[in-house]
Design brief:
By secondary structure, the protein is of the alpha+beta class. It has seven helices and four strands. The chain has helices spanning about 30-45, 70-90, 110-125, 140-145, 155-160, 165-175, 180-190, and strands at about 15-20, 50-55, 60-65, 105.
Length: about 190
C-alpha cells in the first residue's frame, strides 16, 4: 500500500524527529554527528530552509525546521539518503537506517514553538547525558546560550518572543521547570 502524501505549509515551522531503526544507534562517534551537520549544510545550500533548533542524540534527532520553497519531504529525501549512504558504507552494513519515515508535527502557535525549542534543547539533560544543556555539543543550544555563531541556526524568531530579544531571557525560560502543557505536548509527540 502506497504511503499517503503529506500536506505541507511552506513557511511554517515543523518539529521533525527521526529515530534509528529499532531504536538503534545512528551516531556512534563525533565524525558521525559532524557528517550529519555537514549534510544539513549542503542540503541548505541546494534547498534553503530555516533551522531554529536541533539536537542530535545517539539513536534519534530533533529539528525545529521551517521549509521555505521545498517541502520537508524533498529536504529529507536528500538528507536521509546522504546520511544513510555514508553510514552504511562506513559501518559496512545494509538495510534501513531509520525507523519509518520522519515524523513531522506542524508547530502552529507561539507557545508550541517555544515549547518545542525547549524540549529539543533539554533532550540531552532529560536523557541524563549532561547536567546542563550548554554542555551537550550536538545541539543548537550554544547558539542561544553563548550566542555562538552557527551557519545552520537562525535564533531571531525564537528570541523575538523575549524582552529585548535577549538570549538571557531565553536561557531562563529553558531552565525553568516545564509547564504541564509543555510536558503534555512533548509526551504527545513521542507517543507512537
Amino acid at each position: 500500500m502506497a504511503r499517503q502524501p503529506r500536506n505541507w505549509i511552506l513557511g511554517a515551522p515543523y518539529h521533525i524527529m527521526m529515530r534509528g531503526n529499532r531504536k538503534s544507534i545512528i551516531f556512534h562517534e563525533s565524525k558521525d554527528f559532524t557528517k550529519y551537520l555537514d549534510i544539513l549544510q549542503l542540503t541548505y545550500e541546494q534547498f534553503p530552509y530555516i533551522l531554529h533548533s536541533y539536537c542530535l542524540m545517539n539513536n534519534h534527532l530533533h529539528l525545529l525546521l521551517e521549509p521555505i520553497n521545498h517541502s520537508p519531504t524533498v529536504l529529507f529525501r536528500k538528507i536521509n539518503t546522504s546520511y544513510a549512504l555514508y553510514y552504511n558504507k562506513k559501518y559496512d552494513v545494509t538495510g534501513h537506517l531509520y525507523q519509518d519515515r520522519f515524523q513531522a508535527k506542524l508547530v502552529d502557535s507561539t507557545s508550541y514553538l517555544l515549547g518545542v525549542s525547549k524540549y529539543i534543547h533539554l533532550n540531552p539533560v532529560e536523557a541524563k547525558l549532561v547536567k546542563e544543556p550548554e554542555h551537550y555539543p550536538w545541539s543548537s543550544y550554544s547558539s542561544y546560550y553563548h550566542q555562538k555563531k552557527n551557519p545552520l541556526i537562525t535564533t531571531d524568531k525564537i528570541l523575538s518572543f523575549f524582552p529585548d530579544a535577549s538570549p538571557d531571557h531565553y536561557n531562563e525560560f529553558i531552565l525553568r521547570k516545564r509547564t504541564y502543557k509543555e510536558q503534555e505536548q512533548a509526551d504527545t509527540f513521542l507517543k507512537p
